[in-house]
Specification:
The structure is a single chain. Helices cover 30% and strands 25% of the residues. The protein contains eight helices and 14 strands. The strands form three sheets. Strands 1, 4, 5, 6, 8, 9, 10, 11, 12 and 13 form a ten-stranded mixed beta sheet that branches. Strands 2-3 form a two-stranded antiparallel sheet. A two-stranded antiparallel ribbon has the order 7-14. Strand 2 and strand 3 form a beta hairpin. It is globular.
């Protein structure tokens, strides 16, 4: 299994802090946002490589960071050749770019790089192995307002995904979908042709939505929480709460 980290955004909501520096490498205590995630994923026996897809503006910074790391699995940095937020490829096209550039032909763990997690991805990998399908994560979200800003799924009693909507005005459930996915090798061809067949490009959830309509997907309920760093306020809150 290849761990693919989507890290090609420009984090414009963090202003000057990320104007010339990638959000995933911002410090949280002695580590970084990305470092805390990779510390966990690197310990998973099924993972054999970390692939970080970023943009041209930040690629050299990620390369410098890579030289200081000592993970047990190799780390590969991919530059998507974009330099501005206006010319960004979007998360789905960045994933397709990485698949094409590295000729990936393996199961993939696909993760966004701007969350602190309070559980291990090993649980997610074990769930996907048990189900034998591509999988997404989910968690219960009581707030209708927050559900209207994310992906929302309907599942059966075996956690098979029956329906997924992006940012629904009238959510059909309280199952929200965070940006973490496992895509099986057998579904790679669907992924390769997703955009040309109408899949949205910008958010990683666009691909999950597309895949739900085209193959069997199960959802793993997170066993603990996460902290999404999407603004200056949430970054400083993360530093205060988890950086000591």
């Amino acid at each position: 299994m290849i761990n693919v980290v989507i890290a090609a955004g420009y984090a414009t909501r963090l202003g000057e802090l990320t104007k010339n520096f990638p959000k995933p490498l911002l410090k949280i205590g002695e580590s970084t946002i990305l470092g805390r995630m990779l510390d966990d994923i690197d310990r998973i026996p099924e993972i054999k490589e970390h692939v970080i897809i970023t943009n041209h503006k930040f690629a050299s910074i990620f390369e410098e960071w890579k030289q200081e790391q000592h993970y047990t699995k190799p780390v590969t940095i991919i530059d998507d050749d974009t330099s501005t937020n206006e010319t960004r490829l979007g998360a789905v096209c960045d994933l397709l770019f990485a698949i094409e550039q590295l000729h990936i032909n393996d199961d993939m763990l696909v993760v966004a790089a701007d969350n602190l997690l309070f559980f291990s991805f090993q649980e997610f990998v074990d769930f996907a192995k048990e189900k034998g399908t591509s999988c997404i994560m989910c968690h219960e979200q009581p707030s209708i307002e927050k559900l209207q800003r994310t992906g929302v799924i309907v599942v059966d009693d075996q956690m098979k995904v029956l329906n997924m909507e992006e940012k629904p005005q009238e959510p059909k459930s309280h199952w929200a979908v965070p940006p973490f996915y496992i895509y099986r090798k057998e579904d790679l061809d669907l992924i390769r042709h997703s955009v040309e067949n109408g899949c949205g490009k910008d958010a990683p959830g666009n691909l999950a939505h597309y895949m739900v309509d085209h193959t069997t997907i199960h959802a793993w309920e997170m066993t603990a929480g996460r902290f999404d760093i999407g603004s200056l306020d949430t970054y400083y809150e993360a530093v205060e709460k988890y950086g000591k």
